[in-house]
TrEMBL record:
Belongs to the short-chain dehydrogenases/reductases (SDR) family. Residues 176-215 are annotated as: Disordered. It comes from Streptomyces hiroshimensis. Residues 176-188 have a biased composition (Low complexity). The keyword Hydrolase does not apply. It comes from the Bacteria. InterPro entries: NAD(P)-bd_dom_sf (IPR036291), SDR_fam (IPR002347). Keywords: Oxidoreductase. This is Uncharacterized protein.
Length: 215
C-alpha cells in the first residue's frame, strides 16, 4: 500500500492537494504547523505539528513502517509580507530562510531517513518556485531559499537515490489568488495559472511527478 505524506496541508497548494489525495487508495498523513483545521474533504490522518520537532519524526517513522511505498509532497513554506521584506531587516531575511529552506531540509531528511530505515522505496516532491531561478524585488530571502531548496533536492537525490528514494522539485508558476509578484515587486494580474483545484496544477503535480519517479 502507498503511504502519502503532505506537509503544509493547510496551505494554498497543500489544501487542494490533500483533498485530492484523500480520494485515492492508500494511507494519508497530513501535517501543518498552523492549527487551521483539516482541509475540506479530508478526515484521515490530520496533525498540527511543527515538522522540525521530535513529534514529527515519530509520526513519520510510525507512518512509514509497513508501507510498500512512501510518497512525500512538501508544500510548506511562507512568502514574506512585502511591506516588511522591503526593509533591510536581517531578521526578516533569516525568517524567510528558516521557513522556506531549513524546514524543507528537516522534512526531507526525516522522511528519507525513515524510509531508508524501514527499507521502503519512495518519492519526495518539493514545491519549488519561480523565485528559485528568477529575481524579485523585495523577496531576496524567499528567492534565495527557493534556489537553495532546488539544490537541496539534487543533494538528496544523489544521497538517497541508491536506496530507491527519488527526490524532485517542481515549480508550477504564478497562480491566481496567490501573492506572486513581478520582478519589480508589483502584483501579477495576468498570465497566471488557474487557482489550485483537483483537476488543475495540483493533479498535474501529484500524478505526473510521482509517476515519473517510478520509471
Amino acid at each position: 500500500m502507498v503511504h502519502r505524506i503532505v506537509v503544509g496541508a493547510a496551505g494554498f497548494i497543500g489544501r487542494p492537494l490533500a483533498a485530492y489525495l484523500a480520494a485515492q487508495p492508500g494511507r494519508l498523513l497530513l501535517v501543518d504547523s498552523e492549527p487551521a483545521g483539516a482541509p475540506a474533504g479530508t478526515v484521515r490522518g490530520w496533525h498540527a505539528v511543527d515538522c522540525r520537532s521530535e513529534r514529527f519524526k515519530q509520526l513519520v517513522d510510525e507512518f512509514v513502517d509497513g508501507a510498500e511505498r512512501v510518497e512525500l509532497f512538501h508544500a510548506a513554506g511562507r512568502v514574506p509580507h512585502l511591506a516588511r521584506i522591503a526593509t533591510n531587516d536581517v531578521d526578516d531575511f533569516r525568517t524567510a530562510i528558516e521557513d522556506n529552506l531549513v524546514t524543507t531540509y528537516a522534512v526531507l531528511r526525516t522522511v528519507a531517513e525513515a524510509a531508508a530505515a524501514h527499507r521502503v522505496p519512495g518519492a519526495m516532491l518539493v514545491l519549488g518556485s519561480v523565485g528559485g531561478t528568477r529575481a524579485h524585488r523585495y523577496k531576496a530571502g524567499y528567492d534565495a531559499a527557493k534556489a537553495a531548496a532546488e539544490s537541496l533536492t539534487r543533494s538528496f537525490a544523489l544521497e538517497y537515490g541508491p536506496r530507491r528514494i527519488s527526490t524532485r522539485a517542481i515549480a508550477i508558476g504564478p497562480i491566481s489568488g496567490s501573492s506572486t509578484t513581478s520582478g519589480l515587486g508589483s502584483p501579477l494580474s495576468h498570465r497566471r495559472m488557474p487557482a489550485p483545484s483537483h483537476g488543475g496544477p495540483v493533479r498535474v503535480a501529484a500524478e505526473g511527478s510521482f509517476a515519473s519517479a517510478t520509471r
